[in-house]
Specification:
The structure is a single chain. This protein is of the alpha+beta class. The two termini are 16 Å apart. A hairpin with an 8-residue loop joins strand 1 and strand 2. The protein has a five-stranded antiparallel sheet, with helices on one face. The protein is globular. It has one helix and five strands.
Length: 75
């Protein structure tokens, strides 16, 4: 597993989400299911997703750039 950053393509200075996941697809899905403002994170035309070790949340959490962490409640 590795850490991924998921971020809206149209707002590079807005919120970003870091999550530990087995794949890019799973990282996108975790963010989409657990962050209300990022429900479209699974759409590659709207959100980018790439490996990123800037923030390294533990398994079960999503770190956000502009807010506190979010627990992964929905898998």
């Amino acid at each position: 597993m590795q850490h991924y950053r998921v971020q809206p393509l149209d707002d590079p200075d807005g919120d970003a989400y870091w999550v530990l996941a087995p794949s890019e697809e799973e990282a996108r899905r975790f963010v989409a299911l657990n962050v209300a403002d990022a429900r479209e994170a699974v759409k590659t035309a709207k959100f980018m997703c790439e490996p990123d070790r800037y923030k390294q949340p533990p398994c079960g959490f999503i770190y956000r750039r502009l807010s506190g962490p979010v627990a992964i409640a929905r898998l």
